[in-house]
Amino acid sequence: MEAIQNLRKQDTKKKNILMLSTYSVSLVATSAYTIIEKEPFYKTMVYVSELSFFILFFLIFQLWLKKESLFPYAAIAAIFIHHFLYIGMFGGNGAFLLVLLFLAVFSAIHFDIKIFVTGYSLGLVAIVMNTMLATENQDFLSSTFTAILLCYVLIGAVLFVLIRLNKAAFKSLETFLADSETEKVRKEQHSALLHGELLVVTESLGKINDQIQTHLSSQTEMKIAVNEISAGSQVQTEQINQISENAEMTKQRMDEMSDMSVLLSDNTLQAAKASESGSVKIAELQGDMKDLASSISELSQTFSMLTKKIEETNGFIVNIRNITEQTNLLALNASIEAARAGEAGKGFSVVANEIRKLAEMTKETAIQITENLTSVNETNSAALEKMTDSSEKLTESRTAVEEVSGFFAEVSSTLRELTNQFGQFELTVSDVKNQSGDVEASTRELAAIIEQATAGLEEMNATIETLNDDNQTIAAYVSQTAAAAEKIKTLGA
Hints:
By secondary structure, this protein is mostly helical.
């Protein structure tokens, strides 16, 4: 719209200059004509004064007030006022009709309906005044008034059509300029939008590059963590192997205890036979009792050692559970990092789930081993209590033998009961042996599971390295894209 306003303003200024130059030339020519024809001097002064006023109006409206759109109205009004005064002072004549026709065309210079109608209407009034106040050729003017008026109307119609055509053409030009300006604004907006989008793309690529660098750093840390987990798995394997060896040793001790229980049972039978032989065998029986008490003491110590070994094994199981929980925690952290990585960490998330499953399996196995060891410990405690009872009864038997040899029958009964208890003890020892075998098998299975977990961690490490290489390649592509976007942004600016 500003371009159209400027175009109108410049067009008005140029047409004002055209009016000034055209009418000034005509006034100068008219003044020269009056001088050449030696007409009265006051007529020459009228034209000179009219020229002076015309130029003054131009300077006031065009240059001083900057109201160039008012100049045509003021100029036409001044011209016709001057001619009205001229007709009133000197009367009309035939030559003046040509001047009025010229002024009709002169009023159409701006091709503005309002200006033209103003000048044309004043010209029509001037024609009527010129005919009515004519001092020369009055008969001619009166007889040709209708024809002159018709000619004036036809000229007005032609000029009106020309003005309408010019206005339509100027309107088309304004529309073209408006469309051009709109297109220019649209292109500028499009360019600004493109530049803004390039800025967003550049910033987004920068953020993506930063995120990829963060992922690379995270994957490096994950690689270190997986290596640490792998090292921890190796330590777990060694500990499980040690637990397996301890279970093997426990089984061997159980074999020894079984042999010892058989021996004690035989000794008890011999003692029963000896008690039936009479008081003659008391001394021998007392010796056997001492041997039996010593054996029970050793057996009690053996059970105590077994209890300690079971407690140590429980400690190992606790360590296994702690390591399992740490492995589960590391798998959880790995899943979280994989979730942050998005699509790129999907494979790593699968590996992390497998690790978590292995950790849960290890945890369940450790719980089962703990339950088995707890059962063994309870059985061992029961056997130890029975050994204590047996020792007390042997002490009572020795006291009874020392006090009275007549209690041989009671001793024989006690020995029979002791024989039965040793039978039960043999069964208990057999159960402990079987449970020790189960512990050994479970620890071997646990060792195999941990070895599988270690292999899975190694595969995970290889996967992380592959992801790291892929992310580095993506980072290189993103950097190239960001550089290309920066070049496009520079060209757009």
